[in-house]
## 1
Amino acid sequence: MNDDELFSALVSMTRIRMFEERVRREFAKGDMPGFVHTYSGAEAVAVGVIGALEPDDLITSTHRGHGHCLAKEVPLDGIVAELYGRETGLCRGRGGSMHIADFRNGMLGANAIVGGGISIAVGGALAAQVIGDGRVAVAFFGDGASNEGVFHESLNLAAIWRLPVVFVCENNGWAESTPFSYASSVDSVAVRGAAYGVPSRSVDGADVEAVRSAALEAVGRARRGDGPSLLECRIHRREGHFVGDPEAYRDRDVVDAAQESDPLVVAQSLLEERGLSVAGRLEAEAAVWTRDLDAAYDGARAAAWPDPAQVERDVYAG
Amino acid sequence: MRHDVILPKQGMYEGDVELIEWLVPDRSPVEQGAPLYLLGTDKVEVEVESPSAGWVVRIEADGFSGAIGSVVGYVVTDESELA
């Protein structure tokens, strides 16, 4: 990545981190329904991978999907209003954090079902192949999902049909409270691609340059018609599984270790090693983003609730 | 500047929660993120962190129960605001 690309990635990652820190603070107040999972620590994956895509490419997300939404340029106001269950939200307030979707921006949906988005991305890739529009689909999922049947079925199907899909595993080492080292028969999700003849790589998910480089290779393969790829990004989960998780199952030193490999710090250090002073520019970007966040929260809290008479709208029956 | 210390929402639980026990003395200095008090819901106990560096002032006492969002104390960023 050249200097401008790397700085732009750092700004995008900083926006995601600030968004999640704001979510944590606002959620505590009690007026955001349901519960939320933050993307902190995984920023380089969303920004690295989605930066390798074209705007009309497709993604599917997870229960921890705010970072994917922001990197895919899903409108901020619609995201925040959706967190608050308002009519102005991206799903008219019916979905909340774990169901945000924005088809206009190629975001096919967050998903509360572990692994649920993987096969949807395969469907998106099949559609692109049939239509022949050259689009690529990316499925984001966690290490826990790689133990689900849908992961294996999806890789196999994508491989036999040579579908333009990239499977991106965000391996943060924890399936909610179960360690990857306990729940997986192999020590890397990338190993599993070989069983289906899917080219696979494992990269440091805190290094946005490494993620972008691997993603460009995989997306290029898909775009050329050479079929699916699997990309495992090794990351640390900086916080609990959900906001408010007391994390009684993790030793304090594991949590502390997660703080040491911060993708934002890694990117900023790289820029400084190149002799660029970015702190001032980053601060200016953060100030603008803070105002955007303020406006999004004010707007969401003032927005109308969905009309109960409309409860059957958008519900498919028969 | 004054930052409220509230009973925060934890996970999906939306009933009353309890300030089990303050972990710092009244009017003492605290760092941002330092544990201020132990919070209890029907399921878990968690340490609630300070919203800011400064001096903590207690409003409610150990054992207080209330709705999520209730203000139980505050942190002032300037010692002169303690008066």
## 2
Amino acid sequence: MTSLTVGSRLGPWMLAAVRAEQMRVLADLLDDPNQIHLDPELVRSLGMGDRVINQGPANLGYILNMLTIAARDFELERIHVRFVRNVFADDAVTADGHVDDVDRDRVHCTVWLDVGDAERAVEGTATLRRQLG
Amino acid sequence: MTALPVAGLAHVPGTALPEGTFTISRLENDQLADVLGQSPYLDAGHVHPLWAYIATQRGIGVGIAELCAIADFDVNDGPMLGSVDIEYSGRLQVDVQYRVVGEVVGIERKSGRRVGTFDVLTYRERLLAPDNSEVATVTNSFILPRRDR
């Protein structure tokens, strides 16, 4: 049984390097034709950097991975995230979070995804509900 | 940061998106878990919660390019996902045909130091089970850089 109390840390969940090849698979899974995920030349021409940019939903997916593992006896009820920085190919990412409040069967959390040492890429909140039965 | 209505796009909020359907396949569920680096010790049959986003995005009757076009924006100009809000009210399952409905919630013009002038396009999609019960509601905001404005 997972025990989550105020202040409990939920992560970290880490990926050593976001791979450009994974972005190609994700482009198909997301049905996303945006070439900034596939074409580094386009990224350069748009002045957005020199490596392809990871899909925002993938960055959310890493946080969802972290929550799924940290709170196995809970169901995710709601998640809200804001994308504040791009994640590029070859970046190392860490998803993490902590419990802010516990209200009967619900747990309210702050969640985030960092690039490298501590540069925030995604930030948000999540509510978990204890599974019945 | 001040938000302003967007001249010429005042008709966009409230636009219904064409309805569609989507089925999460076992193969694609496995592929997603693999590319997201999900832990292998999760229960067999686990459906990744990101599918609420993907199923609504793919199931709605317009693609990202057409969605951008509603806001008079070319998808090749680099739209960026600004925020996502997902409310889960049912369990996601593979091999179930979900219905997807949605509408544009709003569009606002803003400007910032990093992106310059941009529009924020917000739309909401609902994933419905075969009995019409709601499985998830997803509200997304896309940042549309307006480099020419």
